[in-house]
């Protein structure tokens, strides 16, 4: 399986189906943490797994100089077509991040890092982030929890019908390898008024909090906070999504 071939047909309707996503609130949360860890206004921010650029644009509104990185050319084309000036988009694998100039901070939202299916690849992503951050760089990202995959998504099916597009989203979670398979069936209305059927399969991996923290340490980060992404409080057993906030650990360079 290849976690990096998704978001092709779905890219065309992604923003419509994500219109209930609280990007503005997430942006305020991210800004709060960036400010707390001395990331100044005007800082260079890398948005990993930026998709159609919704969060990238929210953060640009705070005055950050944004670079959006994603492996889906289709998603990036939509991001670039928005006409938003001053955002640089890169089509690149997160495992191979290479920036011309270091970023002051890197962020990732919408469980983009759960698409990294192998633990060694997750460490590789973290290494590449560290190598592309400035000396005092901050790394903030969210990830879905094991509880979300086991209980909230599990074997459930979700469906939604819109005027111009509809989808059926089936989940199949394997507790042994902790891989969640999303089978997406899309019906998208064409300019001629006919509906076309598209199918995509997505895969995400559930990681324990301790695994993620260990991977960050292995890549040379010091984990400063892990909080529930919904209330910014200490995680509990039913937290569905966590924020991880880390800074570069310069002790490993000595």
Tell me about this structure.
- Its EC number is 2.1.1.-.
- It is an enzyme of class 2 (transferase).
- It holds the Pfam family Methyltransf_25.
- This is Methyltransferase.
- One of its GO terms (molecular function) is methyltransferase activity.
- With 254 residues, the protein is α/β, with parallel strands linked by helices.
- The protein folds into two domains: 186 residues, Vaccinia Virus protein VP39 (Rossmann fold), CATH 3.40.50; 54 residues, S-adenosyl-L-methionine-dependent methyltransferases (N-terminal domain of TfIIb).
- It is 26% helix and 34% strand.
- It contains seven helices and eleven strands.
- The chain has a seven-stranded mixed sheet, sandwiched between helices.
- Helix 2 packs across helix 3 and helix 5 crosses helix 7.
- The longest helix has 14 residues.
- The radius of gyration is 18 Å and the shape is globular.
- The termini are far apart.
- The N terminus is likely disordered.
Main beta sheet: 7 strands, mixed
Low-confidence stretches: 1-8
The end-to-end span amounts to: 39 Å
Shape: globular
Looking at CATH, the homologous superfamily of the largest domain is Vaccinia Virus protein VP39
How many individual helices? 7
Helix/strand order: HHEHEHEEHEHEEEEHEE
Protein name: Methyltransferase
GO molecular function: methyltransferase activity
InterPro entries: Methyltransf_25 (IPR041698), SAM-dependent_MTases_sf (IPR029063)
Organism: Anaerostipes rhamnosivorans
């Amino acid at each position: 399986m290849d976690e990096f071939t998704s978001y092709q047909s779905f890219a065309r309707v992604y923003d419509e189906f994500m219109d209930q996503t609280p990007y503005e609130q997430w942006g305020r949360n991210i800004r709060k943490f960036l400010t707390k860890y001395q990331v100044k206004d005007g800082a260079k921010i890398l948005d990993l797994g930026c998709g159609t650029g919704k969060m990238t644009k929210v953060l640009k509104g705070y005055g950050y100089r944004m670079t959006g990185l994603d492996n889906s050319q289709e998603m990036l084309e939509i991001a670039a077509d928005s006409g938003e000036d001053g955002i640089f988009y890169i089509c690149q694998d997160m495992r191979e991040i290479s920036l011309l100039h270091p970023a002051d901070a890197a962020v990732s939202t919408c469980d983009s890092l759960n698409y990294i299916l192998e633990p060694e690849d997750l460490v590789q992503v973290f290494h590449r982030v560290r190598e592309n951050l400035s000396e005092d760089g901050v790394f903030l990202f969210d990830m879905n929890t094991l509880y979300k995959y086991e209980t909230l998504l599990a074997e459930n099916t979700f469906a939604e019908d819109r005027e111009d597009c509809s989808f059926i989203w089936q989940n199949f979670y394997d507790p042994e390898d902790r891989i969640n398979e999303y089978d997406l069936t899309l019906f998208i209305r064409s300019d001629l008024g006919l509906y076309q059927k598209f199918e995509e399969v997505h895969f995400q991996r559930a990681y324990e909090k301790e695994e993620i923290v260990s991977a960050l340490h292995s890549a040379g980060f010091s984990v400063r906070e892990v909080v529930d992404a919904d209330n910014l409080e200490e995680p509990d057993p039913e937290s569905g999504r966590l924020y991880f906030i880390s800074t570069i650990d310069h002790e490993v360079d000595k």
